[in-house]
Amino acid sequence: MSFLTEDKLTFVGAAGMIGSNMAQTAAMMRLTPNICLYDPFIQGLEGVAEEIRHCGFEGLNLTFTDNIEEAFTGAKYIVSAGGAPRKDGMTREDLLRGNSEIAAELGRNIKRFCPDVRHVTIIFNPADITGLVTLVHSGLNPSQVTTLAALDTTRLQSEIAKHFGVLQSKVTHCRTYGGHGEMMAVFTSTAQVDGTPLTSLIGSDRLSAEEWTALKERVVKGGANIIKLRGRSSFQSPSYVSVRMIAAAMGGTPFLQPSGCYVANGKYNHIMMAMENTITKEGVVCTETKGTAEELALLDQSYQHLCALRDQVIEMGILPPVAEWNTLNPNL
What are phi and psi of 82, to 5 degrees? Predict the structure, then answer.
């Protein structure tokens, strides 16, 4: 069995549940034989490496290290889950300062040790902001950095499928945009249930307006619900979705769900958020995000919320003022 590429793929935070699941998923999908695991917690990291070795993946050249220079040197693709996890009762935004500082150091290490990396995916919360901080400090092109907002679209698809009792694959064209958080914009106009527009079902005896409102609330709080059910933050779904994203960047099947990307289009500027886009070997490319006036107003609100978080990070000194970003990253 061949691999998608021979390029080095590094997982940051690999001793944790998300990181270890990402590594195993990448090995199962045969993205590359050259997978490197990085985490400061060397004992746990070695345990992850041993478990993956016990799986017996054919042709896998698995390495692990707690040395960031070793992990990043020669890396062409990076996925980072290397931030503090969310706990019960916390919002993603509660992690803002600590994880933004981690993201800044991550970006500096990318610039220092692997400036020719091809794509980086950030999944630690608040992912829109940590992705933005990583991008600014890394010096990478905006097309080379994405974040995990696509997980919200998958959660919307799941909730609709459960409500109607259909296979999840029968629910198509689901879209959530804006921030990966409780201010996300859930779009209605694009989705279909087994070929039937969702808009024609809302308000009917199959999906009352009240049921739709409750369903959207479950989507918005999907991550918090996992914490309540399992006693810990999500790890299986972010692992799988993020590996699908990096697989697309490595030359696999294009990733078509709205992922977090850098936006500077005149209306939305100097921010990382979920928009209509596609990830391929050429990177992430934004296309037009369409919706009703009401949906676009929700997207505007999500954008303003993210701008406020960005500005907090600037006030903390973790990012310079927007006008000075190009001194760190000439691509911005």
Answer: -85, 40
